[in-house]
């Protein structure tokens, strides 16, 4: 399961409203090959279910992972930072053995 912080929830709700996404949209979190550490995180908004999708809900936000990504992201917390070092979503992944300096890629 992937969980989200209160700050991530607030940012997700802001984006959903700004983009005029209706109740059918959810957050799709995935892992892709690439990045300086081997694997990179991907976060999108989607409203189409695909074969093998795994759905979770945390703090009222519907989160979707494909089966491959679930294996890498189980137990991950999605956060949002708006500090001086940059704005954006951050992944706190207990399965990552190494991450790059920018925090956008990892390896297991």
UniProtKB/TrEMBL annotation:
InterPro entries: ATAP, ATAP_core_dom, FeS_cluster_insertion_CS, HesB-like_dom_sf, IscA_plant_cyanobact. It holds the Pfam family Fe-S_biosyn. GO terms for biological process: iron-sulfur cluster assembly. GO terms for molecular function: 2 iron, 2 sulfur cluster binding. SUPFAM superfamilies: HesB-like domain. Residues 2-104 form the Core domain. This is Iron-sulfur cluster assembly accessory protein. It comes from Sphingobacterium alkalisoli.
């Amino acid at each position: 399961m992937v969980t989200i912080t209160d700050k991530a929830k607030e940012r997700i709700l802001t984006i959903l409203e700004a983009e005029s996404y209706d109740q059918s949209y959810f957050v799709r979190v995935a892992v892709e090959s690439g990045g300086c550490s081997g694997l990179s995180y991907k976060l999108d908004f989607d409203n189409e279910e695909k074969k093998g999708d795994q759905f979770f809900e945390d703090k009222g936000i519907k989160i979707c992972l494909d089966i491959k990504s679930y294996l890498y992201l189980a137990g991950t917390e999605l956060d949002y930072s708006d500090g001086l070092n940059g704005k954006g979503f951050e992944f706190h992944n207990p399965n990552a053995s190494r991450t790059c300096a920018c925090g956008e890629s990892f390896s297991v």
